[in-house]
Structure formats: structure tokens, C-alpha cells
Specification:
single chain, five-stranded antiparallel beta sheet, 11 strands
Length: 224
């Protein structure tokens, strides 16, 4: 069972510490939720793990072996879903899939998904936010990478697609280790196996909404 262990991550912007001592671990078969207020460093952390942003210091291992995120593009170990849409907007759905998947089996698993098949002739830019996000998450989930980083997969999309994405992630986690962050904390807590909160640059273990409230992430009223 592959395990991703983050022993320490530190990152500053213009001498302003954002991540001071972030530590956690997850493995294939788990979904880990990461909470934190705007500016707490959630997206920064995901970009560091993916290898597109460099940390001041970092100590990561996968299956006991030291791991360098800067080499991720070659190792194909971690995939990343950014907050912003990454698919070309002017291309039809049926034509965008082969851009990222060359083999027919992988293409078919996406193309014949019941929610995607009916959208085949629509341009990506004409899809609703939920339709587009579902397509993006589905494509990321079909990549060979063992670990997936998902930045706000639920935010601002229709409830129908929030539920569809939750079902998808719950299904694929048997073969993937999933790390996700989203302000829609209720949706996150519904599917995660464990959670952490980034506060003052450090990680705090979170079990439920009560822990989120006690650490100031949500109000006590919302936690009740």
C-alpha cells in the first residue's frame, strides 16, 4: 500500500511565513481533507507537492523513499486539479479527451461516462460549471498517477455535480490516494477518511465540524 508522508514543509512570501511546519500522511485507499482560511497556504501546499512551486524546506517520502516534487513531471506520481479550469474552452468535449489520453481504453472510460456522453458535441466553454468540473475531475481520476491533489472540486457547482463528484471519489479511492481542499467543508467531511486544518502555518488534526469550530474555521453555530 503506497503511503505519502509529509514530514515538514515551510514556505514564505517576501519574508512572510505561510507554511511553517506542515506535517501529515495519507495512503492509497484514503481521502484526506485539508481546511484553512483564505491565505492559509492550502493552494500553495498543493502546488509544492505537485512540483510547480518550490518550498524553502521540504521532507517528503513515498513508501519510505525520499521524494523530490521537482521531479514529479518525470515520475508521474502525483496529479493536480487546479482551482481554475485547465481544459481548452473552444474545443468540443469529444475532441478534448484525446488531447490528454491517447489509448482507446482510457478515452472510452471518459467518453462513455453517462454524464459525459450526452455532452460530446458541446464545446467545453459552453458547459455549466458543474459539467466542466465533473469532466475535469473524471479526467484527472483516469490518469496513472497514484496520488491526486484536488483544489476546490466542489466550489460553486450545482448540487447534482457535487454529489456526482463525491460518488466518483469514493469509488476511485481504492486505487488512489486523494488529497483535497475546499471551503464546502460539509461536502468534504462527508467523504474524507481524515482531515487537517492549516492554521498559523501549522497543521491541526480535525475529526469533525466541532474541531473546525473550536479552531476558529467555522462558527460554533454551524458546528451544532
Amino acid at each position: 500500500m503506497s503511503r505519502l508522508v509529509i514530514n515538514s514543509v515551510t514556505k514564505s512570501y517576501k519574508n512572510n511565513p505561510v507554511l511553517k511546519d506542515v506535517r501529515f500522511q495519507t495512503e492509497i485507499g484514503e481521502i484526506l481533507g485539508i481546511f484553512g482560511r483564505n491565505g492559509s497556504g492550502k493552494t500553495t501546499l498543493l502546488k509544492i507537492l505537485f512540483g510547480t512551486l518550490k518550498a524553502e524546506s521540504i521532507d517528503i517520502s513515498i513508501d519510505i523513499n525520499k521524494y523530490n516534487p521537482q521531479q514529479n513531471i518525470f515520475s508521474k506520481t502525483i496529479a493536480y486539479l487546479p482551482q481554475d479550469n485547465f481544459l481548452p474552452q473552444d474545443i468540443k468535449v469529444r475532441n478534448v479527451i484525446p488531447i490528454y489520453f491517447q489509448d482507446g481504453v482510457s478515452q472510452d472510460k471518459i467518453f462513455y461516462d453517462p454524464r459525459i456522453a450526452k455532452l460530446e458535441n458541446q464545446r467545453v466553454g459552453s458547459l455549466s460549471h458543474g459539467e466542466r468540473r465533473y469532466l475535469e475531475v473524471l479526467m484527472i481520476s483516469r490518469l496513472p498517477q497514484r496520488f491526486l491533489l484536488l483544489d476546490e472540486p466542489f466550489s460553486m457547482i450545482e448540487p447534482l455535480y457535487q454529489d456526482a463528484i463525491k460518488d466518483m471519489l469514493t469509488t476511485i479511492k481504492k486505487d488512489k490516494g486523494i488529497i483535497l481542499t475546499d471551503h464546502y467543508y460539509f461536502d468534504v467531511l462527508q467523504i474524507t477518511d481524515k482531515n487537517i486544518l492549516i492554521k498559523d502555518g501549522k497543521t491541526i488534526e480535525v475529526r469533525d465540524r466541532k474541531d473546525l469550530a473550536e479552531n476558529g474555521y467555522i462558527s460554533q453555530l454551524k458546528a451544532s
